[in-house]
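pinned: reference chain
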Amino acid sequence: EPRASVVAFIAAEPEAWAAVVHAVFDTVVYNLEDALRRMADGREYERRGQQEHPFVRQQQKTAKGFLARSDSSLDLLNLLASSSPEVRQTLAWPSLATRAAGVLWTCVNWLVSPERADGLAVLDPNKYGFELARALER
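pinned: its structure tokens
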């Protein structure tokens, strides 16, 4: 049973578990940031009327991959937390709760800040695998 293995790991190695959760948070932030930067690059090409440039298509493909990794990382934490009260309790540990709050603040800020709005205004966000409402919901 995978849940039992995770719970046993948490009990035996709480510091290692915290490091795993921090790594998942880092993965979410890194992948989201990279995807958003690729969208901003695409927006620059669109401004010049070069939305069909091979570079833009590659940025779209890569951004989709980064967003999928960010989503799957969140899915992993959600799956573990929803399957075990022991896992949910660990996410309230001060170091993890503080880090989760920082990740949440960073991601929401990137998605709604006026400084980033123009970079998100690509002609077809779906080509990048991006949907603002879904990103904010996650």
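why pinned: The chain has a mean pLDDT of 91. DSSP finds seven helices and no strands in the chain.
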